[in-house]
Amino acid sequence: MTYGSETWSLTMGLIRRLRVTQRAMERAMLGVSLREQIRNEEIRRRTRVTDISQRLVKLKWQWAGHIARRTDGRWGLKVLEWRPRTCKRNVGRPPTTWTGD
What we know:
Helix content is 50%, strand content 0%. The chain is mainly alpha-helical.
């Protein structure tokens, strides 16, 4: 469920959807339906599964450390260290130039 999540932008809506999905999977693991009205804390205690949001944050920090330790010049580190321009760009398409002259 967390495959490739290191690069996701973690919004509150995405975290909420993942938590709902995880709770549904935990209920399916135990064979419990929503009609039985068992609290989420009780289901979590029975399954002993870690919370998805905590796992995502941990994976994201691990990936950031992995990228920061790279020294081979791949684009991941360049993107992290990129500094935007300080001046404003002109509006419109850039003028065409002859590269051969």
